[in-house]
Amino acid sequence: MEGDDCGFHYGDGTNEAQDNDFPTVERSRLQEMLSLLGLETYQVQKLTLQDSLQISFDSMKNCAPQVPKDLPWHFLRKLQALNAEARNTTMVLDMPPDAWPAEKESQMEEEMIYWDPAEDIATDDIYSFSELPVPDTPVNPLDLLCALLLSSDTFLQQEVLLKMSLCQFALPLVLPDSENHYHTFLLWALRGVMRTCCFQPPRGLRSFREDSVVLSRLPTFAFVRMDVSSNSKSQLLNAILSPARRQWDCFWHRDLNLGTNPREISDGLVEISWFFPSGKEDLDVFPEPVAFLNLRGDIGSHWLQFKLLTEVSSAVFILTDNISKKEYKLLYSMKESTTKYYFILSPYRGKRNTNLRFLNRLIPVLKIDHSHVLVKVSSTDSESFVRRIRAIICSVARSPCRRVSVEDMAHAARKLGLRIDEDLEECQKAKDRMEKIIRKIKDVDAYKRDELRLQGDPARKAAQVEREFCQLQWVSDPPEKHRAELRRRVLELRVQQNGQELSSGVQEFILGISSPSLGERQYFLRWMEWGLARLGPPRPRQPPETLLTLRPKLGGASDLNEPLWPEPLGVEHFLREMGQFYEAESCLVEAGRLSAAQRRFAHFPGLAVELLLGGLPLELVDGATLSIPVRWVTGLLKELHVRLDRRSRLVVLSALGVPGTGKSTLLNTMFGLRFATGRSCSPRGSFMQLLPVAEGFSQDLGCDQILVIDSGGLISGALASAGDRFEQEASLATLLMGLSNVTVVSLAEMKDIPPAILHAFLRLEKTGHMPNYQFVYQNLHDLSVPSPKMRDRRQPLDPPSDLSRAATHMEKQGGSFRTLAGLAERQHVWHIPALWHGAPPMASVSLGYSEAIFELKRCLLENIRNGLSNQNKNIQQLIELVRRL
């Protein structure tokens, strides 16, 4: 493939021979759709999350798909970037004349139109002119979604639904598979979706709480179609969910692009969406959270799904033009149901008298009255009709009604015979192991102290002594007595640590990540993340619109060990404990106190690297001690070198900035990564994640892997020049930037360059190692901004004088930051629009943000490709660099 075309090549791809994998019998609609989209090859070996994250030629392109086989990869790439237009499946043939096939060009020359000036008419019929190549038959977006989910493993399904939720798209709840007669309830796929909503107690101030949509018990309202309806239920649902003066297209509908294309495989799909209040009366169409369900297709053809909706909903709205004898019998069978039913009819379609006769019979059966029959007179009464529906929903929600969670829905679906994605044996075994660990955690602080014993004071003391010992390397003539004393103290602390035994919780965790089944390991990690996140009540949050604007105050804590905010218990604490055991043991082996044959924890780096290769971010800088556990990190990198074999050429990309400037969100949107976001739930340490480069692109890009480092909560932005924190932060910033080929500095304001980063610039200038810098100024406050140029070679303003003096004092230099200003003038300065379009929690990611992030990504990859990011490193060189820095 040429580097400049717009084809899509992810994973293993497909070829024409693979279209004939199925026997030569009449193909089902599902088989035809999978073949059309090039997904047949993924029916046995499913598409994985790592396949979708791979960096390839297409990572630098933003062109429209040209053939149906491009559509799944186009959708995944747009969804990864949180692009609001991801569901658009329009195909465009963008072929220049010199790319047309020779026979087509020759045919066009023979059929050119010649005009007779005298008669002013064409000598040939204009309609015989050869048509330009046209795209294949368009694909309905819902068919594309169903085909992709049926071809994906459960972890990619989970990621797809998470990204869809951030785009405010309706999410699939029941996935139809008509060919195999299996309908799957997507409980596991929905577990990763979290929402923040306003909580207003009867007395007291309102607050915001974050919780999983799977666990929240809410009033739920289903909208279904019976036979034919001239009213679009998806459009009606969108209107119900939309605040005044703004239309949300949460549910795909007939008036959207390709919305009228016939659905081939997605009839029977059940979608779910939610409304969560923001606490602003002018924006909240409902005062409390509400869930909405939408069944695609006719209830007569999808009775099982309809039965499920009647068992989990507070009320069901049935849209129809006709009620025939068949539909009457179906509804009559629901006479034992306690669900409330409402009918929405059109007065201009259907058989009026027949409808009235059957409705009168159904009124006593379904326990409804005439107020439950609504007639939508015309398109001109849409607003008043929507207000009426909202009033009904509010009335039902206020009254004693059924409130269910997605977990409750899954129990009902299981009884009806639907397959639950979470019922897989691997998933349940991993869940049981997680629960054995979580059950023992009654108090988080006590658990950290009693079960994670090598952390806390022992780790901090060891890190402090080793830091002092390291600093002696820069002293011209260090006293040997002092060096010997530091060695003795380090060894004494490590002996104490090595004398400890692994706690039962850590042992159980190690068993979980040691499972021979890759799937079970991945399930276990996800269960652990959610189980630990739910310890205690739901976390109070800041209002969603300010989540990215949280800024620490200048002059923060000067005590190095004082956390900037409470750190929640996470998976990283268990891996940190494993790292401390490995550090202590390695130190004793180096000192000759322990033989290599006596080692118990030498396999720990291999276990952790398996997690890194599976997509889990690993801690590079310990957030508790603000130090790098060098032996542990070296062990990880050595093991990574072995696992990658010959594909170990690295480019290191780091993102630095104060927590709250949106750097983790930026990295996640750019590359589909999993760095923690939101200051109230983020760990303090710096984390790294690995991105594989497709083999066909690695030669062109010049590397096999991209190691992405997020500085996390290390850089506080505090100016504490008299204390240790500023000096330590500056050293860590120097380390991260020194390891990097490319550094993204994420800033909120033009004068917001943290002093620790300024200090690192000056240090690196001395070494001659200057990575390619990209300064990113994010608009974190305004929700609507003019569209500035994506690339703007502006020079940042000089830093405030007090920060300048502090950093220059540290480096014993005079003058100002002319070097930094000159550097910024030569490098790119980016201005990124606001993240949200609308008011959270119902806001979607703005199209401007998504497009600007894609342009930044393309620029970064171009710089790597063109060699502007200094030379790539192999892992052995990276290990040496870690030791030196």
From TrEMBL:
Alphabetized Gene3D superfamilies for the sequence: P-loop containing nucleotide triphosphate hydrolases (3.40.50.300)
Annotated InterPro entries: G_VLIG_dom (IPR030383), GTP-bd (IPR006073), P-loop_NTPase (IPR027417), URGCP (IPR057365)
Keywords linked to the UniProt accession: Cell cycle, Cytoplasm, GTP-binding, Nucleotide-binding, Nucleus, Phosphoprotein
Gene Ontology terms: cellular component: cytoplasm; nucleus
Domain VLIG-type G: 647-883
Pfam family, one: URGCP_GTPase
Molecular-function annotations in GO: GTP binding
Entry superkingdom: Eukaryota
Region (Disordered): 1-21
Subcellular location: Cytoplasm; Nucleus
Keyword Cytoplasm tagged: yes
PANTHER family named among the record's database cross-references: UP-REGULATOR OF CELL PROLIFERATION (PTHR22796:SF13), URG4-RELATED (PTHR22796)
Sequence similarity: Belongs to the TRAFAC class dynamin-like GTPase superfamily. Very large inducible GTPase (VLIG) family.
Protein name: Up-regulator of cell proliferation
Lineage: Eukaryota, Metazoa, Chordata, Craniata, Vertebrata
